Amino acid sequence: AQSVTQLDSHVSVSEGTPVLLRCNYSSSYSPSLFWYVQHPNKGLQLLLKYTSAATLVKGINGFEAEFKKSETSFHLTKPSAHMSDAAEYFCVVSVYEANAGGTSYGKLTFGQGTILTVHP
Amino acid sequence: EPEVTQTPSHQVTQMGQEVILRCVPISNHLYFYWYRQILGQKVEFLVSFYNNEISEKSEIFDDQFSVERPDGSNFTLKIRSTKLEDSAMYFCASSRSGIQETQYFGPGTRLLVL
Questions:
Q1: What is the pLDDT of residues A1-38, one digit of tens each?
Q2: A30 chain-B contacts, CB cut-off 8 A
Q3: Pairing mode, if any, of strands A87-99 and A114-119?
Q4: CA Rg value for chain B
Q5: What's the distance, Cα to Cα, between the start and end of chain B in Å?
Q6: 60-89 in B: which are within 8 Å (CB) of A?
Q7: Which chain A residues are closer than 8 Å to B108 by Cβ?
Q8: In sequence order, what DSSP letters do the residues of A13-30 get, joined into one string?
Q9: Nearest CB to B101 within list A43, A106, A109
């Protein structure tokens, strides 16, 4: 089974300061990991994804995340926050596995979300 | 840029009524999904659909729920005899394949069961 824990439900930063959103995962198999962002009244938008290539993944809008297998972490960072970054962020894991219960075709398992607030 | 669309954006229904939530996935995608998010809780997987059949479903997806691709563009989620606890945001998603592919999400349908 796979699971995701986002360690902070709320993060508040000042504009221009770094952003760190923490995520730990649990997976029996090699995972694919994603960060999605949701702005108010909008759908879930992909920020970046890790699928067993480079461990440092760059995404849109200056965000990046590093896959650390030894720490089972996939933290999201950005060097300098912008007001438009204020949103809810979801860390997501997906595993393709064939097991006694059938084959998983990549269902996504979400963390509980982190609300990022950016102050002027 | 192609996107997933969902209708309606909001739906209010009475307990026991049937509702159909509609989605138009991205046109060249082959895998389709429904997720839901009850207020204050995590986004949860409901079901995945490929080649006109369910490929995987969660424990939540019981006989009350069904999915269908009635034509070449729509993907629907039907909830029979709605319950109060079905109130949630329902998200549709699609992907080109089912393995390690990005799932693209629609804006969601907020369902309120009274």
A1: 788 999 999 999 999 999 999 999 998 777 889 999 99
A2: none
A3: antiparallel
A4: 13
A5: 37
A6: none
A7: 43
A8: EETTS-EEE-EEEE-SSP
A9: A106
